[in-house]
Amino acid sequence: MIRGLYTAASGLTTGERLQDMLANNLANANTNGYKAQDGLVQAFPQVMQYELNGSSAAGANAFAPAIGTLGQGAFLQEMVPRFTQGNLQSSSNPYAFAIVDTAPDALLNPTGAPGQGVQSVERSFFAVTDLAGNTSFTRDGNFSLGDDGFLKTGTGGYVLAVDNNGQPIANSRIGADPATQQPVAYVLDPATNQYAPAANLGVNASFGIATVSNAEQLMDQGNGVYSLGSAQLVAIGQALPASPNVIAAPAGEVRNRMIETSNVDPAQTMTQMITVMRAYEANTKVIKTLDETLQHAVNDVGRV
Questions:
Q1: Residue closest to 35 by CA, chosen among 271, 222, 164
Q2: Which residue, 219, 240, 241, is CA-closest to 228?
Q3: CA distance 140 to 128
């Protein structure tokens, strides 16, 4: 009976975290480039129950016969971003860019053979910096031109240039040509400690996208910004070492004056919230019933 309380309580905790996740998805339904999160719920390991002081044909000292298995509740293992393509909207902002996914998801097993196993998702992102200067990734390409002449994200970070292999270049910036408003890559000149056009310094750098394998492993930093964490950066156009978790194909292309909207489906999210709420209410009723049963066991049965 006490175990039942813990099992129902784990359902309450899981439901609360799922509801918070869904509420966050719904709140970001109009956030450009936002990717909805999915909750992965896992059950605690089941335990085998045996009859207390049981006996069998072999005698009273024999091993107690098994009654059956007992579930111990569930917990929210992790929340994973769902990197499906959001809808594209046209924009009058000349510094607005959207990524269109071109590479399909791949199913790979541990040996690397296609057709079965876990899903490996490869997605492309804009390489940006956060306020601390760390390299991050975002799908929100609604950039603006800062007072210093460089493209900035909505959170105040800078847009980074990438090399020919799609690798983000540290100490780089993306500016804009005054005449054409087209993006121009700048890198830090070690001689002057100032940013100069990459072409003038003989550096292969341009405005582009970085492709990440196992995108579902990215760490969500909030505001539609992600850090690599345990994910791997893919070198576009190069032969990659054999790996069950890497896809060696380009995963996206950039379109100007377009914005990728959130991939949150408000109607579906509301339905999921109602389902979670009903499960939460069911667990509260279970706890109430067990509490009343315990009360009778202590107050009534104990008197007999």
A1: 222
A2: 219
A3: 10
